[in-house]
Amino acid sequence: MDVHKIPELACFQRFVPAMRELWKLDLSEDERWKRVGGLLPMLLDDPELRAHAATWDLTLGPDDKYTNLLFYEDPDYGFVINGLVKGPSGVTPVHDHAHTWTAYSVIYGSEDVIRMQLDHDAPAGKIAKMRETGHYTVKPGFVDVVPPRLLHMERVGDAKTAAIIVRSARVGGFDQRMWNNRTHEHFIDKGPRQVPFELGA
Ligand SMILES: [Fe+2]
User: How far does residue 152's CA lie from ligand 1's centre (Å)?
Assistant: First the structure.
C-alpha cells in the first residue's frame, strides 16, 4: 500500500486537498492547527468513514502498546492521518508528542484527557514532579488540538473508542517523553507504531 496516495473514500478526497490548502497559507502554527481542528469534522461526521470505523479492531501491538492505523502521509507537507482504537478502560502513560502538533477526536466512545504540567523534570528511571492543569472529555463533536511538548494522558470510558488523529508528522520513529501515570517515573519511548491501513471506497 502507498501511504502517500489519498485514500479513495470520498471524505478523504475532500479533506486532504483542504488540508494542503492550509499548508500553502502563511499561518502561525497555532492558527494552522486551529483550522485543522475546524476541518476534522469532514472526516468525523462522514457516514462512510463512520461505518468503516465500526469494523476497526483494537490496535495493540505484541508488546501491548497502542499502534496507529496509518491512512495517509502527505508527501509534500508531512502531515499524517491516523486511526486508533482503544479498549474500554484503557489508559495511556503521561506523555507528550515531542515536536509534533496533533488534532484528536473520536468517532465513537469517549475519553477523559488530563493535562499535566511538569514542575521538576527527572532523567529516565527517576520520578518527576508534575501536577494536573486541566481535565476534559473528548467525545464526538469535540476536537482536541494538542501543541508540541504538552503533557497529557488519556483514559478511556467503559466502551471502546475509535479516534481520528491528524499529526504534523509521522510519529513512531523518534523518542517521545513519557511518565508512568501513577508513579510519574520518567521513561523514553518511540511512540505508537504505524501500521499502514487501506481505506477503500
Ligand atoms: Fe497523546
Answer: 6
